[in-house]
Design a protein that fits this description.
Transmembrane protein, five-stranded mixed sheet, 5 strands, alpha/beta, globular
Length: 190
């Protein structure tokens, strides 16, 4: 019986360490563990403190844009602002400009330092808060991505496909719900 308890304890310790090592986006949960990344507050981390004022400005503008579009946040979203590709690579960004990891936090790669990208990812964060992480992963992409492209104020028209189609489908759906609460209506989408 002691052996089973010891093994269970070892799994409980090793599993988070392995997840942190191999599932790079999960590193946003503890970004200060990533070499070169400093968290200057509970909400902003960066690999370049000299760019902090720009990061803070983008956070404020993206937060205001997203909050006005999808309602107030329950928690304090954390964003890791990467100024280098090596920082973005440490979080598994690939070619993405920015990425939300449920309601754990967001990463912004060097090319994502724009208010609409930050607002887009903050909308994904708010989706996870309102709908749950699993629902965000299983809801139709037109709802999840279309909402973020539409409500973030993304100036690119048209987007590449399927993103433009998703944005258009979301906008038609959003117009059809009238005064109904958007989050309640979104929970009913299948």
């Amino acid at each position: 019986m002691k052996r089973v308890g010891w093994m269970a304890g070892a799994v409980l310790v090793c599993l988070p360490v392995a997840a942190f090592a191999f599932i790079k986006p999960l590193r946003v949960a503890v970004p200060a563990w990533v070499p070169g990344v400093q968290c200057v507050s509970a909400s902003i981390c960066t690999d370049n403190v000299a760019a902090l004022a720009d990061a803070q400005g983008l956070y404020r503008e993206g937060y205001a844009r997203a909050g006005a579009a999808v309602g107030p946040f329950r928690g304090t979203p954390r964003i890791v602002f990467c100024t280098t590709s090596s920082c973005a690579d440490a979080f598994g960004m690939g070619r993405r400009a920015a990425m939300a990891v449920g309601n754990l936090g967001m990463i912004v790669a060097p090319r994502g330092w724009t208010p609409f990208y930050v607002a887009h990812e903050l909308i994904h964060y708010r989706q996870a808060e309102s709908l749950g992480n699993l629902a965000v992963a299983t809801q139709p992409r037109w709802l999840i991505e279309g909402m973020a492209y539409s409500l973030s104020g993304d100036p690119r028209h048209p987007l590449g496909e399927p993103f433009e189609q998703w944005r258009s489908k979301f906008e038609a759906w959003h117009a059809s719900i009238g005064s109904r609460d958007m989050w309640q209506a979104a929970r009913d989408v299948r």
